[in-house]
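Contributing: when you submit paired examples, paste them exactly as shown. First protein:
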Amino acid sequence: MKKITKILCCILGFGFLLGGCATVGSINNSSEELIYNGNSAVMVDGYLYYGNAFSDISSFSSDSDYKTAARLSYLARLNTNIDLEAKNKDYSPKNVEKVTTEVAGHTNDFMFVLGNHIYYATPNRQKAIDSEGNANNYYNYTTLYRSQLNGDGKSKIYTTNGEITQIEVLKYDGNYYIVMLAGTDLIKIQIGSRVSASVIAEDVVSVAIPKTYQKDKVGSTLDWNGYIFFTTTRTDEENADISGSDVQRILISDGDAEVVFHEQGTTVTFIGREKDVLFYTMTGHETEVFMSDVTGDNSKNAFRNNRKTFFSASSISNITLISTGTVDYGYVFTNSSGALLYSDIRNNRSGAISLQSAGEPISDYNVLFVSGRTVYLSTTTSIYKADISSLFNGGSATISCETVVTMTAIYDGTFYAYDGTYIYFYARLEEVEEDEESSEETDEEEETDENYYLYRTKASKNSEADAGTPYELLGKTQIESRQTK
């Protein structure tokens, strides 16, 4: 399939400055590399940028809903180089700044910094025409913005025509690219001093994109071969019996897509990628998950020639490499029931991991992220860390987890950030024990606030002082009674 270079002029806003004066003070980013800490926050020289509160965009039915959410879920900034000026851990700090007014904390969260610009995703507000010619809002589609770190020079750089199922930021040959699958469009946006975008493949069913580099996660890397792999459905107008899928690849820097694998009647579906190791399922092999390690092999037949069975299951998800950066130990992943499993590639072992806290099993959890050989998990009430080093050295698959933080209501989706010291997450406000000054009787009803705000907790508790402050509220609350005066 030839490369598609059409530019969607109707939805791109390159150079479309939304301008105005800077909203916060200017800072300079000392890092020359991409900064990505997770989808909910990004740390730049001690200044934390984040979605102040979390909004579930599935509840949006009108622009009024968007505007209401924007009052709390805006892009905020907090200078953490100084002590947080807060009454205590349960009160918003004084110095929360609003950088931009768009909804930045939401179901399709994504943000990162490159140079002196921050890039962030917001729910789409542009109406789209449906098949019957009606104009509708699709808030599950995404608009990408970028602005200077003080909120100045804001510009809209892309609006998707479908919901994003994967988005990453990659560096190849000295250039940076946002790569995403939105609906059935595979999109490339080159970023930096200039911004340009193109749909590089249409009618895409699945894709294998390397994960965004995150310097604070042990084992994360910028190394990859420059090829994006994807699948499309095989069709032939002259032969209705043609079926299955084409596996294709395209070099991110330039070039046309080329078919690297197809077999009549065989459908390949990508389910993950770590560096240059591709994971996928194939029809006709319903009880097997396959992998193709194409590291160092850029030949056209690399996908086929390096294929082998990875795990016996109908499907798996959330595949993550376990690595110290110098040694790759294997992978952890989840099955269809959400249970954590592992594959030890050095010792040829695999199986289920039993996670426990204080001798009791942990269930109904999501994997937040993995750093090195430590897995961080979240339930609706706790965040845990599981050191699985012993497992990849022949030890037991029963792992005792350390509780990082416990709260009444944690938003336990895949929304997090990690800067090497703190884990950032969304949770509802905790009840505060009244002190003597505030315990006087009053006729006023107690204010309630059911929103999820950004918090932080230390990933490692190294002292009694750390243990005494299990979390800190960072978001600025809706109710004034929980704001530090």
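Second protein:
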Amino acid sequence: METNQTTPKAPAWANPTPAGLVALAVACACFFALLTGRVQTAALPLIGAWLLGGFIIQLVVAFLDLKSGNHTGGNTFLFFSAFFMLVGGLEMLLKYQGALSGAPLDASIDGYAWSVLTVSIWLWTPAFFKKFSLLSVIVALLDVGLPFIALTDLGVLPKSYAVVAAWALLASGVVAVYLAAGTVVNTAYGKKIYPM
């Protein structure tokens, strides 16, 4: 006699995006403090540590997003995890070591790298506006802030213009925290608690 056994389905993974957004917000807050002069060179190792923590979170988010078919979010978190978080964290540590040893690094190369990241975000932005959301606002704010980082690192604009990037990043981080909270709380209750 043949039995019709079905294998129990593994539960689906939850949406990891809120964790990635909190990591983004932490990075934005750290860059805000650095770009506005609220912290000095002595804070670089600590900023590096926070960014390296964000790298782990965003890498996991990227893999899970890509696995679930989230092409736009997965690829964005993947390159954010690598360049904004991992490279950013390692650079902070290296810049601090360079400052301590009296041999500061030539950070103008950052301007070239940030230029590529800026253009990439600009060209990917339409994918985030397919359906307007708070995520669209975050990307639009990054679109404003990143070119100022690139242009000041390249020496095209004076360092004083980095404050534009700082405030755009801070605003992006604030929206990211709210979107993360809304996603977590609304999902937990199965209804809208925080308006999105």
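If you have annotations for the second protein, write them as plain sentences, like these:
DSSP finds six helices and no strands in the chain.
The chain has a mean pLDDT of 94.
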